[in-house]
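Progress against Task 2.4 (sequence-to-structure conversion) is shown through the following example record, which the project officer requested during the mid-term review.
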Amino acid sequence: MIYISSINGGSAANAIPREANAIIYIKREQFSEIESKINLFFTEIKKIYEGIEEYMQIFVDKIDSSSEDTVFSNDIQSKLLDLLYVIPSGPISIHPKVRAYAFTSTNLGILKTKKDYIKIRILHRSFSEYHNVNICEKVITLLEISGLEMTKKITGSYPPWTPNFNFRLLNLAKKTYKDLFNKESSVIFIQGGLESTLLIHLNPEIEAIAMGPTMKDVHSPNECLNVKSVENTWKFLTNILKKLD
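Structure tokens generated for the chain above:
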């Protein structure tokens, strides 16, 4: 039997959790058995994500216990583990027209054990308002039927943004890019929460596009910025503004 004292993971709702940890209690004579099962499980996980997640690591360490340490009750622990096992996280559906992109997704971004409660924070995104609300309602339903005492708080969301490849502004931007850099631009649409979707939601009559410098490993400790691309982005933006009527 494993007794969970705490479980924590993630740092932001809009970032895929980079790491997580749990403090558990077991009988002393079970340590080798539990460690072996964890390592066996991790070996299987590495096979599944071979070539995708090359730097995954898992550590099993003994810690000094304290008389103040507490563990979840068997009832709470069982219900929480069942919930975490079935709660969706990741792509929910693929875009029906552009198969390379997710259409609806959800992210279990934060899980924190507090003194008197457990905090779970989830972020949903979709190109469709209906599907965005739908996945939110499904997650709430899972929380309600888990049997755990729950207080929910919906803090708002980025409204869906249906891409319009016929925008005059987009065509102007593509031509400007070609004139400046002598190559075709790459136009994509993403699920990321951007200011452009908020602007269009407030005024559906306006046109908006999103642009920015080249960044890698965004929302992680390895996040970095290509400095040269900042200069190019500024040049790109100012030239677009010069050409606007």
